[in-house]
Design brief:
rod-shaped
């Protein structure tokens, strides 16, 4: 390999390295954004679980107030 080929090869290697660094930077940004989204979704899931629990408790207290049995039995068609 002569000097001109070495220079060309070195410039191509540098360009390839720059491209890889750019891709890595974009991937880091994307990962951070996805982590934020996952954290927000986890927060929403926790709120929904609390809401479901409160609704379940309200339904049970309503049944008790109205004299209905609180039953975890499956309906007869199951």
């Amino acid at each position: 390999m002569d000097a001109a080929e070495k220079v060309i090869h070195q410039k191509m290697s540098e360009q390839r390295l720059i491209e890889l660094e750019i891709k890595a930077a974009y991937q880091e940004d994307l990962l951070q954004e996805l982590n934020k989204i996952v954290a927000q979704q986890q927060h929403q899931i926790l709120l929904l679980e609390k809401t479901c629990q409160l609704l379940h408790e309200r339904m049970n207290s309503f049944r008790l107030e109205n004299g209905d049995e609180v039953s975890d039995q499956s309906p007869p068609h199951y």
